[in-house]
Design a protein that fits this description.
With 240 residues, this protein is an alpha/beta fold. The protein is built from eight helices and eleven strands. 37% of the residues lie in helices and 19% in strands.
Length: 240
């Protein structure tokens, strides 16, 4: 598959980690990074691609990390969900400033800040050319934002999940620690589960496998990569 003139997808779900927003700061939200991401999303949106987003909260609060320190897991997860709302509002603001019509829908109701998650309304927003950001995960503890991304992708009938990471695909081991790490261009869902590869958690992968939802894992820190995938370029790793 080479390049093509028209976008490969009509509707995508972009999964961003909270860490993608922190830049080199190590925590919080870097205004320059979030502005750059908003610019890339705007460019892809301008191609006529309908975009939904699920964003993590790891740059503000990590529920799993807190639960290992003795905090009740459900409480920690709810705090993590609230962190994703902070990120969603920040990204909405960045997109609004670039003239992209955006809606945030939260799985935990907070009507002063954003809409409640309603599937049909989300789909309608996408049809009306609005970017939709899904916040607060699934609204349930013990589920990651990866699982939320898989679930929302099915619900809105997205054609693919674009999983943004800091590495250029999936490797057999951590490329930052091992120089001989081998990158996979393509993997099956079973490969990911059996080899214990850190693409998404097993719940998210199983959900995608059962519903034939393809996942593209790519490096979001390389400018223009979101557009490259949407235009059909071979970058990153495809799980299908």
């Amino acid at each position: 598959m080479g390049k093509q003139d028209a976008p490969k997808f009509k509707r995508i779900l972009l999964k961003l980690s909270g860490e993608a927003l922190q830049g080199d700061k190590g925590y919080g939200i870097d205004p320059i990074v979030i502005d750059g991401l908003a610019e890339e999303i705007k460019e892809v949106h301008g191609l006529g691609v309908e975009i939904a987003l699920v964003i993590g909260g790891g740059n503000v609060f990590r529920g799993i990390a807190a639960s290992t320190q003795g905090m009740d897991r459900a409480t920690a997860d709810y705090m993590g969900m609230l962190a994703t709302v902070l990120n969603a509002l920040a990204l909405q603001d960045a997109l609004d400033r670039k003239g992209v019509d955006t809606r945030v829908q939260s799985a935990i109701e907070m009507q002063e800040l954003c809409e409640p998650y309603i599937r049909r309304r989300a789909t309608r927003h996408l049809e009306k050319n609005r970017v939709v950001i899904f916040a607060a995960g699934t609204g349930n503890p013990y589920f990651t934002t990866d699982t939320a991304a898989s679930l929302r992708a099915m619900e809105i009938h997205a054609e693919a999940i674009l999983k943004a990471t800091k590495v250029d695909g999936v490797y057999d081991k951590d490329p930052a620690l091992h120089k001989d790490a081998v990158k996979f261009d393509r993997l099956s869902y079973l490969d990911v589960l059996q080899k214990g590869l850190k693409v998404m958690d097993s719940t998210a992968i199983s959900l995608c496998m059962d519903n034939h939802m393809q996942i593209y894992v790519f490096n979001v820190t390389n400018k223009g990569n979101i557009k490259r995938i949407v235009m059909g370029e071979d970058i990153g790793t495809l799980v299908a």
